[in-house]
Design brief:
Elements lengths: L2 E6 L4 H12 L3 E6 L11 H6 L8 E4 L3 E4 L1 H12 L6 H31 L7 H23 L11 H6 L7 H4 L3 H4 L1 H11 L7 H4 L18
Helix pairs in contact: 1-3, 4-5, 5-9
The protein binds glutathione.
């Protein structure tokens, strides 16, 4: 089986999609810690030339040769190559893509910036900005909750990459948001329990270095690259 390296950091839900998928398919992989909040290499010219021209994580390196970026692309590649969490047939593929795009833009696309502004942005954000984002988050999560009221998984009766993508920011602690997604959206809460029960599931802070904040530790334990 291929060996993988994943450029990531603990607080990144976008990177968590890839880290979780690697774990769920039982891949041999190692995180490469990006000091996103400190030195911020992703903003430098070097990173953009030699790692990712988009200046982002996640970046997946396959067997030291092939490189992929964008969590949706990484999930698609890993599903195709492992045969796991793979949507079957054109209709399911398109349906998975539809929810992954919705997720990237509307659910995690708002949750990510909201959580960043609330916890780490300097200077602190304007309350009106947070209120606007929270309104969008509530509306968009309600759409996902409704979808899950009569389905076990995003596409139906089997977990796929649409689930791995959608859960990206939802396992981070409620204290980091200042609201409890599970309490507000019961169908999402039940689905998150199903995701959590998948073999090899792990919390973002146990998969990617950078927690506690400001360290390169793996959830309080030394991390050896
Ligand atoms: N659509 C991308 C989003 C990736 C993304 O925005 N990653 C953030 C970290 S969570 C990043 O690297 N941002 C670069 C920066 O803000 O400097 C994906 O799904 O991979």
């Amino acid at each position: 089986m291929a060996e993988y390296q994943l450029y990531c950091f603990a607080q990144s839900g976008n990177a968590y999609r890839a880290a979780l998928m690697l774990n769920l398919i039982g891949a041999k992989w190692k995180p490469v810690w990006i000091d996103f909040f400190g030195a911020g290499p992703q903003r430098g010219a070097d990173y953009r030339t030699s790692v990712n021209e988009m200046g982002e994580v996640p970046v997946l390196i396959i067997d030291g040769k092939k490189k992929l970026t964008q969590s949706s692309v990484i999930l698609t590649y890993l599903a195709r190559h492992s045969g796991k969490f793979l949507p079957q047939g054109e209709d399911e593929e398109l349906e998975a893509l539809r929810w992954i795009v919705f997720d990237n833009q509307k659910t995690n696309g708002f949750l990510g910036p909201y959580r960043f502004l609330k916890n780490w942005a300097k200077p602190a954000p304007d309350e009106a900005v947070l209120r606007f984002l929270k309104g969008r988050i509530d509306g968009n999560l309600a759409i996902v909750n409704k979808r899950l009221e009569n389905r076990k998984w995003m596409l139906g009766d089997r977990p796929t990459i649409a689930d791995v993508s959608m859960c990206a920011y939802l396992f981070y602690p409620p204290e980091e948001y200042g609201f409890d997604i599970r309490k507000d959206h019961p169908a999402i809460a039940a689905w998150l329990e199903r995701v959590k029960a998948l073999p090899n599931w792990a919390h973002p802070y146990d998969l990617m270095p950078g927690y506690p904040f400001g360290t390169n530790q793996l959830n309080g334990k030394p991390f050896n690259a």
